[in-house]
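Cont'd.
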Amino acid sequence: MPPQSFVNGGGGLYIITGGMKAQKSAKFIQLLDKLHHNGISWQGFKPACDYREELNYKNNIPRNYFVSRTGPNLPAEEIDDKGDLSDLIGKIDHSCDVFAFGEFHLYKEAEKLKDIILELRYEGKKTCIVDSLDKYFNGENIPTIAQLMGQATDIEKTYGTCDFDGCKNLGELSQRLVNGEPANYDDPPIVVGASEAYQIRCFGHHIVPGKPEKRILLPSQ
Ligand SMILES: [Zn+2]
C-alpha cells in the first residue's frame, strides 16, 4: 500500500494480525519505518509488559522500543497495560498523522483501547495501525480484536511455517507448551515472554487438550 494512502484526511484502520512467531511485529515495524522515510509523522505505543529480555536486553535496545524477533526496532511510548490507559490518553500527540499500537491483545483494558482507536479513526480522522494476535492459544477469537477487524480499512494476516517436527505446512495457530506439553483449553490465555513456551503450528498439529467439539456436519471423533 502506498505510504501516502495512510494520510488521506479521512482516517483509517490497518490491522496486522496472526499467531505467535508469524512475523507480525516485523511487518508492523517495517511499515512504520516506511512511513517515517516518506515524511509521515507517527506515534507508537507499546504495553510495558512487552519487555523481552532475549530481544531488548541482549541487543541493548531500550524498554520503550518496538522490537521484533528478526531484529528491527523503533521507539514508542511505553504504556501501563494493567492500568486505565490515562497515561496513554495524556501522551497522545494529536499533531501526528498516524498512531501505531503494538501488541494490542496484551492490554487489560483492551475494550477501552479499542474505543480510543475508533475515536482517533472516526472523530479524529487519523490513521491507526494495530499489531495483535487474532486468536488465543486455544484457537478461540480474541473478542476485542475481532470487533476492531470489523471496523478495519485493511487487514494483513501473517503466517509462519509449522514448527512441528518435519511439517512444512502454513503455520497459523499459536501452540502453547507448558513443560513441553500442550496447554489445556482452559489454561489462562496469555502469558507474556517465555517465547520457548510457544510455537506456531498448522491446524493439523495444533493440539489443545480439553477443547470442546463443535461438530454439526461431521460425526464426532
Ligand atoms: Zn504442521
